[in-house]
Amino acid sequence: MQKKRITNWLKLIATYFFGQGATQVIQLTTGFIIINFLTKEEYATFTLVLALQSMANVLVELGITRTLVPLIGKRYNDQDVVGRYFAACRFFRNATLSLGSVGLLIAFYFSAQKYDWSVGYWVVLWLTVIVALQGFTVGSIYTSVFLLRQDLKTLYKIGLISGTSRLLAICLAQLMVGLSAQLALIFGSIQALIGGYTKKLLAKGAYSHPAKGTSLAKEKKEVLSQALPRAPSVAFFAFEGQFTIFLMGIIGTTAGLGELGALGRLGMLFLIVNKTGTMLFSPHFSKREVHQVLPHALVSIGGASLFGSLVVGFIYLFPETLLILLGEGYQHLRFEIVLVVMGSALRFVDIVSFSICLSRKYIFPWFSVVDILPLIIAMVVGFSFFDLSTVRNMLYFSLVMSVIKLLTKFFILTVGIGRELRAANTV
């Protein structure tokens, strides 16, 4: 039995790294091709719109669909249970998406005033973000059942096909008319929409629609019980995650904004391991017994820390391995690359820790206070007393923020494991 379990895990991990690696190669290739095809001014626009899209995606999500894996848990083969939770999440996600679309309209209007975008230009940019969000909304709901069933092959097939199609479209556009920020964003939106609805189609046999008139009060209450305590934290991180981009756009230069966006692309190199939080750790810990959580958590966090340290050491010694990916105009950013990788390594450990908290429902009423208050204090101090107009100083600031995030996750995880163990011992 133990041998079979180990074999299954090895197959799952191999599928993950092959699938995620291939997907990541396509994403990175696409990202760096865009960097080289666009001018710095066009890439600055691309970076700003992606920042708005990323922020909006987090805000309309508000942690809602991430409750599906821990709430469904071991019941993932019960089509009625899965269908009711899907319906509950759709109810909340449709509402937040509608509100988010209006908020984005306002955000793009004011951005257009600053960057002198014509009405037609910024409306198209706004529509690309709305289309992408619709695709993310649909896809995020139906992904959960594939994760719980450990059917990673299907997810990666969807990602590889849609990603390759986007890459080919970008190259074709460059050859025919020349790539622009608008075209790059349009292709990304189409990819998100196709990916989301393909997941919905392929997940059809895994759930059943609740009968008309069926009460979803219980499922909605459970979703809110896990989503609401995190909502302030999620909203904060939607802004905080893009804080450096927006701040550089306000007090920095266009060149600095372009450099920061290009360096941010290097952070995508860590996505191959960052995604383990959603793809592997969260489904795994959601199905574990109480006494297994602590030893599994120590091994997981320790392994993530060791991996991150090795990568940082390698890049410190050989930064040119990443400089070559950025192309001309960015070769002076040798030390900045090391700072970016250090921040990515810290975020990886933070993601693993948070995935454990989420999967075990360590989302306490005070979660958001502990999660964001130290960061708010750090942001106020940094903005008030330090020069954040340069790329290097901005990266130092981001590094400090990453350390604070990790320490707060360790605190929440320690409290959660302690409470769960005490509750189990009293039974």
Characterization of this structure:
This protein is mainly alpha-helical and 427 residues long. The protein is 82% helix and 0% strand. It is built from 18 helices and no strands. Helix 1 (2-37) runs parallel beside helix 6, helix 2 runs antiparallel to helix 9 and helix 4 packs across helix 8. The two termini are 28 Å apart. The relative contact order is 0.11.
Structural class determined from secondary elements? mainly alpha
The helical percent reads: over 70%
The value of Rg in angstroms is 21 Å
Shape: globular
List low-pLDDT spans.
none
Kindly report how far apart the N and C termini lie: 28 Å
Number of strands: 0
Tally of DSSP helical segments: 18
How confident is the prediction overall: mean pLDDT?
84
The major sheet is characterized as: none
What fraction strand?
A: under 5%
State the order of secondary-structure elements, H for helix, E for strand: HHHHHHHHHHHHHHHHHH
How would the blueprint of this fold be written?
Blueprint: H1 2-37, H2 40-61, H3 68-72, H4 79-115, H5 119-148, H6 152-176, H7 181-202, H8 217-227, H9 231-240, H10 243-251, H11 254-266, H12 271-274, H13 276-286, H14 290-317, H15 320-326, H16 334-359, H17 367-385, H18 391-426
What key attributes describe this structure?
mainly alpha, single chain, globular
Question: What is the structure about, briefly put?
Answer:
With 427 residues, this protein is mainly α. The protein has helices at residues 2-37, 40-61, 68-72, 79-115, 119-148, 152-176, 181-202, 217-227, 231-240, 243-251, 254-266, 271-274, 276-286, 290-317, 320-326, 334-359, 367-385, 391-426. Helix 2 runs antiparallel to helix 4, helix 14 packs antiparallel against helix 18 and helix 16 (334-359) packs parallel to helix 18 (391-426).
